[in-house]
Amino acid sequence: MRTAFGLRFDVPGGYLNTASIGVPSTGTVEAVTAAVATWGAGGARPTDFDADTDAGRELFGRLVGVPADRVAVGATVSQLVGIIAADLPDGARVLVAEDEFTSVTFPFAAQADRGVQVEEVPLEAIPEKAADHDLVAVSVVQSADGRLVDLEALREAVRDRPTRVLLDTTQAAGWLPMRLDWADHVVGTGYKWLLAPRGSSWLAQHPDAPAPRASHANWYAGGGMDSIYGLPLKQAPGGRGLDLSPVWLAQVGAAAAMRELAALDLEQVRAHCTGLADRVRAELGLAPAGSPIVAVPGDDAARRLADAGIACAARAGKARLAFHLYNTDTDVDLVLRALRG
């Protein structure tokens, strides 16, 4: 059992795989366990989950700097990006980063039969190329190696331009302080750095961006129980009108996890996480990067780390380590011994 930032985690030493799946606090585990017990005893009602769903909406907005009334609830990032991709005009030009996570790129690539064109450029070239496209879709932090897009340069590049911007915060929200209320679309999922169950994701839509067609319109997006039967179509105002019917237990866990994260000083969390990662970089002769994700070169790095009992991932030919708030210098020492051994 580890205690970090006042929270308790039943996480083993050497767990450095948060970029794949985060480990919940004991408080989040208890909240989900209690909800499962109530459900298992026949005590759950659909409306019982509304408070947690609304709390998750508000808390995600707070963590990415977006007003809660813009935020829609979903289950996966690709599902939410797909709403935006399906609503692009025929022939639209989309800019993405090379080797971007495919939940960001595939929904746009799937529109090729309508003439939608997707261009890949190096991450560093995104701001420079942005104004030549109708939409830029990019992760704030790259999944494979933890590189950060230059948000200020991107914002400046599209200022007073018709180019829209979609940002994926999946590898950023939970450790990186952000204010993304300027972006047209902000998506993110809960099961990595937000330490929530899989099945909780969100989309924040800027009020000045074109409102996408709610091709997945459903009773929940209509505003609740008064829209469960019959026509005409009902759509709640703001982000609620793009909701998917929530994954109930995932929303319970997301609300519990994000309440804890939102109460922390994220500047301190960022300093902790990136400090551990940059210590590994320094020992390996790599430059500091200000990211909690470290891509360790070497054909056998992932094997050596796994043999030492370190939980990590193999990505793009490198071993990917991810340091979150529950990691310590002890984990860094384990990594360095494994790689030097």
TrEMBL record:
> InterPro entries in the record, alphabetically?
Aminotrans_V_dom, PyrdxlP-dep_Trfase, PyrdxlP-dep_Trfase_major, PyrdxlP-dep_Trfase_small
Domain Aminotransferase class V residue range list: 87-284
Keyword hit for Transferase = yes
GO function term, MF aspect, one: transaminase activity
Record flagged with keyword Transferase: yes
Spell out the Pfam families in the cross-references.
Answer: Aminotran_5 (PF00266)
| The entry's keywords | Aminotransferase, Transferase
| Name of this chain's protein | Aminotransferase class V-fold PLP-dependent enzyme
Q: Which organism is it from?
A: Saccharopolyspora gregorii
